[in-house]
Structure formats: C-alpha cells, structure tokens
Amino acid sequence: MNLKKLLLLLLISSLLFVKCDNPSGPIDNEDIVPQIDIPWPSLGNTSWPMHHHDPQSTGRSKYSGPQNGVITKKVYVGISVSGISIGYNQIIYVSTSYWPVEFLALDYEGNVKWKSNFMSHTTPLISSDSVVYAAGVNAFFAFTTDGDTLWKNTLDRESRIVSVGINIDKEGNLYYIDYNNTLTVLDKNGNIKWKLRDERFLNWTDAAPTFSPDGNTLYVQGISVSVLAVDINNQTIKWVFGDKRLLSSPVIDNAGNIYIIPGEQWFSNQRSIYSLNQQGVVNWKYDFIAETLWDNTEPTIDYDGNVYFGADTLYSITNGGKLRWKKSLNGTEIVSPLICDKDNVIYLGVEDPGNGDNKIIAVKGNGEIKWEIIDTIERELGVSPALTEEGALFYPTWDNQYGNYFIIK
Description:
The chain is mainly beta.
C-alpha cells in the first residue's frame, strides 16, 4: 500500500471514530439555549438552599465545584435519607430518619453548631429571611439560624410528611405532598392556607414538587400518571400528562419546559425522557435503554441549556432534544440526582450493583471525565448533594449504617 492510500485510510478511520463518539453530528449554535438563575425573592441567597438547589430543580450551582476530587473528611450524622442544604453563615443542615433521630446544623468542617431531636425524611429549605424550614415526619418546624424554634406544627398520622423535598413560592408559602396524597400549603407562620387532595399525587419518599419560572404552576409527580400541573392561584389541576408514575421530580428550564423520565425502577428497559411545554404538550422525547432506573435520579440543566440524565449510561442532550454525546458507566448505575456547576461540570453518584462499590464522578460538559472517587465502605450514595461557594461538595449517603456524608474538595 503506498503512502497516499495509507494516509487516506487513516483519515477515513478518524472520521468514523469521531462520528461514533458523536452519533448525531455536530451541534449547531441554535442548540445552545443560555440559562440564567431565575430570581426567587423568598428563597435563601445561599449556595444550596433546598433540595436539588432551586424551585425548578435544575441542580445547577453558580459556583465552581471541586477541582481535585479528594475526600477530605467523612462526617458522622446518623442514618439519613434526605439531602443536604446550605444556609446563611456557612451552616449546612441535614436530618436523620432512624434512632437516635436528630436534625443537625453543622459548619463546613462538620462540627455541630446546634441540633434538635425529631425524625425527618425531607431535605431542609432556607428562606431569604434566614428561616430554616424542616419537615419532620410528625411535625413541621421553622428555626432561626441559631436553632431557636419559631413555630412547630404537629401532624396527625394521615398528614405526616415522608417526601424528600418541599418547595416555596415567590411569596414565601411552603408546599409539600403529605402521606394522604394531599398537596398542603403553609404560610411563613405555619398556618394552613389551602389543601388539594388527588389520589394520583405521588405521596411517598420520592416526592419533590417543582415550580414554573413564573411561580404560578406547581408540577407534582404522579402515581398512575406522570405529572400533574397545579394552578396555585385557582387551586386546581390544569392538565395531566402520561400514564406511568414519576419517581424523580420534574426539572424546569428558563422557558418553562418540563423534563421528566417516567417509569418504574424495574420491569421495563424501554425508557424515554420527555420535554413538555407549559401546556403539557410534548416538545420532543428521546428513547433510551436501561434495565434499572433508580428513583430520585433527577436530570440537571447546565448554563447552555443542555440536559444530562441517565442510568447505566450518562447522556447529554441539547435543549432541543438532540444527542450531544453518551458515555457508558462501565456496569455502574446512577443512584443520585445529577448536579452541575457554573463551568458545566456534571457530578454524578453511581453504584456497582455487583459489589456495592460507590463512585462519585465529575464529567466535563464535553463528556470528558475530570476526576472520580471510589468508595468501598459506605452503603449507598444519597439525594441532593450540595456545592458550596468555596468549591467544596457535600455528598450525603442514603440509609447508611455508618451515617456519614463526604466532604470533597
């Protein structure tokens, strides 16, 4: 074979390789849809004030994340099934769900500032006036930053809270789904404003309702349907979409488009992620294969509007539904909500179903792995990891007998 033919063959081979890495071809500029942080006057102006960061559940931080990918410390808090929130004065909040039950306020190094004793499955929420809202199983609490109780609402058995996330509207009213399939709305003083019951509302630990950018519509996960859109001004259901339950909360972009991945954890390997508009009409859907799709593995949206999601494979889709790239996770499965930082770096927690090993992986926006951490001790990674303004990542564990969370820098 002469030199000219050899060079031609190498060129063709390299083009084929690039095409396999990006099977849908080059991305046009119009596929980039810049995102901004939606102003939300009632929410705390902290680095991570609530479950999956914000009322739209974007999982996106305005700060850079860890550069080195090193676990600097494991902090014992007890067995938890909730996420971590960050309040004012660099205080983080986490709840526990097994004896001895505690609600903890800690500094960035994991030292306890104060604590209270009650059971909670729910990620705390921080308001703009520094109030710490904590939904316990049997009571709803509001605390000051110093740990003083502002109010406490005792809950009966039917109205107890086991959901993973609560939300807040622009006026400061609080929203959650209780055990009785009821959307309950409290004002900032703990008084019940209104309730809406629907047997189709998902009422278990996976529930975390999300808001439209204008704050007028609340999207609630469904049991026999996928998502229900609630008009909070008229206190009615505007529309319903889907016929499969939704085990991760809807994620909303700046234009009000809703991203969901319906379906059970098991029993089907045919999956789809949908983009719906504000009227519940399908913008697009992308089909993929996954034997297992874990609950509370919410997608995340970066500052270019790209959507990241997955199960045993990590996918990057443009805002318009075009595949950018996909990356096999080598036999591991995503078990935590995806989050991203201001540099469009995605952070995901995965588990090897064979040996139970955990990994926390940082992936750049182009699909290149930045760093990864392997942990062979903790039981399972948890929900709603949190990024700080200093570039640290607090990663909770879930129902973990050792009761630790990670500090990663």
